[in-house]
Amino acid sequence: MGVLGRLDSNKQVDLVIQAAAPLLRPGVTLLIVGDGNKRARLEDPARRREVADRVVFAGERNDVGAMLSAMDLLVAASRQETFGLSVVEALANGLPVLYTTSPALDGLNVRRARWVPGTVAGIRDAMATEVNVGRRDRAPEPAVKSEYNIQTVVPRIDDLYEQLAAQCSRRRTIARPAGVFGLRDRRPDGLPSAINGSKNVMAVTDWHGPIRDGRLDQRDPWHGHQNPPCPR
Questions:
Q1: Beta strands 113-115; 97-99: pairing state
Q2: Which of helix, strand or coil describes residue 85?
Q3: Is there a domain that residue 47 lies in?
Q4: Type and span of the H or E element at 57
Q5: Based on the domain organization, do 92 and 178 belong to the same domain?
Q6: Rounded to an integer, what distance in angstroms lies between the CA atom of residue 153 and that of residue 61?
Q7: Other C-beta atoms lying within 10 Å of the C-beta of residue 193
Q8: Which domain holds residue 123?
Q9: In terms of domains, do 96 and 110 share one?
Q10: How far apart are the C-alpha atoms of 34 and 110, rounded to whole Å?
Q11: Is residue 33 classed as helix, strand or coil in its secondary structure?
Q12: Are both 134 and 102 inside the same structural domain?
């Protein structure tokens, strides 16, 4: 069994250690991959429950694929997640997963991932079931492979950047009075603004305000109403 992620209070690795402790025995080990400010506090419970020899702290690793391949089950007990990357990676690796929250799986029909309550008892019951079932054949989750493969994700990212660039362009057109920023204006660093189309929108996002004689015009009332930066 394994955990992958930062060792902080949000990941609730302490719950996993408490849940796993009665199940650990020869042939059943808990592998914890990651590092963080809670590591020392997590090592203590393992010693107190006399399972320190069955709980392996691997630290921060760059070979995530190899670490997942060393597991037969991933347990993700986070209090909250914005996406849940470790869950997706584990399912793509062919692992069964127990998770408390993973927005990445919302709306997906996954067979190898199971939601569990964020309690010691709830996690332990689910882990015990998996231990009793034994080692499964590894098979990547089809829904995850379809939803998050590189051919699917890259066009989404491209579309997002294009939308953001368009929003920035519209915001500059609407928010500024005519004539405060033209092709002949210069930025405070002396570089030409060189706006000649959407390809250059991202290149000038570090400046927000009218220019006069190569400097921000402190007298212009628009200086106090600058737009927030657009992403670049």
A1: parallel
A2: helix
A3: yes
A4: strand 55-59
A5: no
A6: 25
A7: 17
A8: 2-146
A9: yes
A10: 26
A11: strand
A12: yes
Q: Are residues 87 and 66 in the same domain?
A: yes
Number of domains comprising the chain = 2
162 shares its domain with 123: no
CA-closest candidate to residue 42, choices 11, 66, 73: 11
Instruction: Please count the other Cβ atoms lying within 10 Å of the Cβ belonging to residue 14.
Output: 18
Query: In tens digits, what is the pLDDT along the chain, a chain of 232 residues?
Result: 999 999 999 999 999 999 999 999 999 999 999 999 999 899 888 888 889 999 999 999 999 999 999 999 999 999 999 999 999 999 999 999 999 999 999 999 999 999 999 999 999 999 999 999 988 899 999 999 999 998 999 999 999 999 988 888 776 666 555 444 444 444 444 444 443 433 333 333 333 444 444 554 444 444 444 445 555 5
In a domain, 113, yes or no: yes
Residue with tokens 């393992």: 46
Q: Would you call 223 exposed, middle or buried from its count of C-beta atoms within 10 A (0-12, 13-18, 19+)?
A: middle
Q: What letters, b where the CB count within 10 A reaches 16 and e where it falls short, cover 159-173?
A: eeeeeebeebbeebe
3-state secondary structure of 25: strand
Judge whether 103 and 83 are in contact, CB under 8 Å: yes
Q: What is the pTM of this model?
A: 0.70
